[in-house]
């Protein structure tokens, strides 16, 4: 317990490092700031960091068709066999325009398209969903998908991108996260470019990887909500053991079984938070603890028990001031997660096969 307390304290310090902070980069103010920075760099004949190479191929999308971008999967990840030559859920970019409109938009976007195109939360969510499908197909730790999105958010907080560089960066982040977390190149450049269906080239990905490394300042181990879940688990078990031993829910379940249920639901909710842009403004520790509180609420723990658990963990474990900004963030994050919990009630069976699915 002492060792876990020390590790949790180190992780809390880790998440406070400015390099791991993510900004609300899709806001008009932030995008305007990036645009001004881009123009200043161009005026001074500097090399723009948003594009790793002048060879970067253009996607057949015009600014008008960007809003209709979609990622489709030809089958669910569970039905994919690892013996197939290529994942059947390969990334597919399409729009709902007619064939006539598509042919008209097949020319590269104009050179000033960066000023016209704005990335959206929907783009990010669809890429995130695709990441989870890929890691499930290759039986890779789902934490890889979460870390790759963290890379992408930090990159986009510093760099103005258009449609093509957004997709290239997103796919490269996934491969970089795989290499960082597992130390193995299970997702080779060729594999990822094959799944892109020719939208990006191998050399472009290699150059983008270098761009990402410099942009992220080689800080590739961001704190994630899932990491905090593991460290918070013994404290939650201790709180519930002291406060709630006589509740009806425990009559037919031992403490380990109850904690498995709690952590399963909490993990489900943290995976939802990874895909939803609105949770980007919250610290990973807040998202993790808010997920646990929602899990307790879903399992119908008494309100008083949830309140005492929140007060104890917030003050003595996480060091939050009950009247401070962190406590307010915890309240808002919990409310947002509970909304998604209710929307996905059919997926809340908290079995060992439960996984967050964003439709």
What can you tell me about this protein's structure?
There is one protein chain. This protein has a two-stranded antiparallel ribbon. The radius of gyration is 22 Å and the shape is globular. α10 (225-243) packs antiparallel against α11, α10 (225-243) packs across α13 and α12 (284-298) runs antiparallel to α13 (303-317). The protein has helices at 2-15, 28-43, 99-104, 113-116, 121-137, 143-158, 163-182, 189-195, 202-215, 225-243, 255-275, 284-298, 303-317, 325-343, and strands spanning 70-71, 93-94. Residues 46-88, 92-116, 248-253 and 350-359 have low confidence and may be disordered. It has 359 residues and is mainly α.
Largest sheet data? 2 strands, antiparallel
Radius of gyration: 22 Å
Helical proportion, percent range: 55-70%
Q: Please state the overall shape, judged from the principal axes of the Cα atoms.
A: globular
Q: What is the distance, rounded to the nearest whole angstrom, between the alpha carbons of the first and last residues?
A: 39 Å
Mean pLDDT: 76
SSE order, as H and E?
Answer: HHEEHHHHHHHHHHHH
Quick recap of the structure?
Helix 7 (163-182) packs across helix 9 (202-215) and helix 12 (284-298) crosses helix 14. The chain has helices spanning 2-15, 28-43, 99-104, 113-116, 121-137, 143-158, 163-182, 189-195, 202-215, 225-243, 255-275, 284-298, 303-317, 325-343, and strands spanning 70-71, 93-94. Helix content is 57%, strand content 1%.
């Amino acid at each position: 317990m002492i060792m876990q307390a020390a590790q949790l304290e180190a992780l809390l310090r880790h998440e406070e490092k400015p390099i791991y902070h993510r900004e609300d980069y899709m806001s008009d103010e932030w995008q305007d700031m990036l645009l001004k920075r881009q123009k200043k760099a161009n005026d001074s004949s500097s090399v723009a960091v948003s594009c790793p190479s002048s060879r970067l191929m253009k996607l057949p999308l015009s600014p008008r068709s960007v809003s209709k971008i979609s990622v489709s999967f030809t089958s669910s990840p569970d039905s994919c066999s690892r013996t197939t030559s290529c994942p059947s859920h390969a990334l597919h970019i399409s729009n709902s325009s007619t064939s006539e409109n598509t042919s008209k938009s097949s020319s590269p976007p104009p050179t000033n398209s960066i000023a016209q195109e704005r990335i959206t939360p929907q783009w990010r969510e669809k890429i995130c969903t695709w990441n989870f499908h890929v890691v499930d197909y290759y039986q890779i730790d789902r934490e890889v998908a979460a870390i790759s999105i963290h890379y992408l958010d930090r990159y986009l907080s510093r760099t103005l991108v258009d449609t093509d560089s957004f997709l290239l960066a997103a796919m490269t982040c996934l491969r970089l996260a795989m290499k960082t977390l597992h130390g193995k190149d299970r997702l080779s450049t060729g594999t990822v470019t094959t799944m892109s269906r020719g939208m990006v080239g191998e050399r472009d990905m290699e150059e983008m990887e270098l761009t990402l490394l410099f942009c992220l300042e080689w800080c590739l181990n961001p704190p994630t909500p899932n990491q905090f879940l593991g460290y918070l688990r013994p404290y939650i078990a201790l709180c519930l053991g002291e406060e709630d031993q006589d509740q009806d829910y425990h009559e037919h379940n031992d403490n380990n079984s109850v904690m498995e249920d709690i952590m399963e639901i909490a993990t489900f909710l943290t995976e939802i938070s990874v895909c939803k842009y609105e949770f980007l403004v919250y610290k990973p520790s807040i998202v993790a603890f808010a997920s646990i509180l929602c899990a307790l609420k879903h399992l119908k723990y008494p309100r008083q028990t949830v309140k005492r658990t929140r007060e104890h963990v917030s003050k003595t474990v996480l060091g939050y001031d009950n009247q401070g900004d962190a406590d307010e963030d915890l309240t808002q994050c919990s409310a947002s997660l509970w909304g998604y919990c209710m929307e996905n009630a059919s997926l809340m069976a908290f079995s060992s096969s439960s996984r967050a699915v964003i439709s």
